[in-house]
Write a structure and sequence with these properties.
This protein is mostly helical. The protein contains seven helices and three strands.
Length: 197
């Protein structure tokens, strides 16, 4: 319930054919394997909590705190009802930054791996280096998850996936955050073993 469906697809089924077959059980819920969602309100609260966390990283919570409760509701209702224009009218404010800053304060990201017990990696990471250079996806992985980077002369062992695509490691992290973040404003990055077929 708390992972976006696209992330689950990247982690668990990216090598399978589309459409992805999903089985929904209405009886005998697997309580030992999955978190049970108590209500629709719990999902909304979790979503808004993620939005607030992302804004704390990007803008010190200034943007989300300046919004009114109706703006928060519009974000949720736009997402829930698949109304992109309604959602984006408010979310656009969360994706802006002053031109003189060259990006967000920190990039809200989570890195998921299928080969570890740790649910995800999340650390503070600035989109711009001290010398003014834009950090790239490769820079993030080298610092936060070096095992994901394949040696230049070696065989490719991992795929780095975001929204079902494998972005180039040279892609600026700020651009990825602005254009490939999930609705919760986090960049969910999957590192999966390279398919052998």
């Amino acid at each position: 319930m708390h992972y976006p469906i696209g992330l689950l697809f990247d982690l668990l089924a990216s090598s399978s054919a589309l459409p992805w077959n999903i089985t929904v059980h209405f009886k005998s819920f697997p309580e030992k394997d999955l978190l049970h969602c108590p209500s629709k309100d719990a999902i909304e609260a979790h979503f808004m909590s993620c939005m607030k966390e992302a804004d704390a990283l990007k803008h010190k919570s200034q943007v989300i705190n300046e919004m009114q409760k109706k703006d928060h509701k519009q974000l949720w209702m736009g997402l829930q009802n698949d109304r992109f224009d309604q959602f984006w009218a408010i979310n656009r404010k969360l994706m802006e930054y002053p031109a003189e800053e060259n990006g967000f304060r920190y990039i809200p990201f989570r890195i998921y791996q299928t080969t570890t017990e740790r649910p995800f990696i999340q650390k503070l990471f600035r989109p711009v280096a001290a010398d003014g250079q834009l950090h790239t996806l490769g820079d993030l992985l080298k610092e936060v998850c070096p095992s994901a980077i394949d040696p230049e002369d070696g065989e490719k062992k991992n795929q780095v996936m975001i929204h079902g695509i494998e972005p180039m490691l040279e892609t600026p992290l700020q651009w990825l955050s602005e254009h490939l973040s999930y609705p919760d404003n986090f960049l969910h990055i999957s590192i999966i073993p390279q398919p052998t077929d």
